[in-house]
Amino acid sequence: MLKEFKDFIMRPGLIDIGVGLVMAAALGAVITSLVDNLLMPIVGLVFGEPSFDSVLAFNTAADGTGGIRIGSFITALITFIMIGAAVFFFIIKPYKAVMSRVQGPAEEEAPAPDPEDIVLLREIRDALSRG
Description:
The protein is mainly alpha-helical. The protein is built from four helices and two strands. A hairpin with a 7-residue loop joins strand 1 (57-59) and strand 2 (67-69). The longest helix is centred in the first third of the chain and has 36 residues, at 12-47.
């Protein structure tokens, strides 16, 4: 049983997954910092503040503890869109550009041959037009 556990722990795929998760967490911190410290202040310049948490909030309880916070949802939505944009423009696009340089231009696949019934119909059409 101990040997099985050792084999499980030492599998190469498990190490690869662990490294990938650690790198993803580190990259997540970098992207969050990019959005929070660089992009959201730009939103603040445009709209007056980088967070909409205090905007469009309605208290539903008399003591002010409960409420509908539409502004907080808008802030989360803008943050989500900015994180997606940051990932796309700062990771995906440069990665694809580097990979296209390394691998060279992608070879286009030859178009699939026409189905047999289409070929037969064309032959009939051509025979009728000649005859």
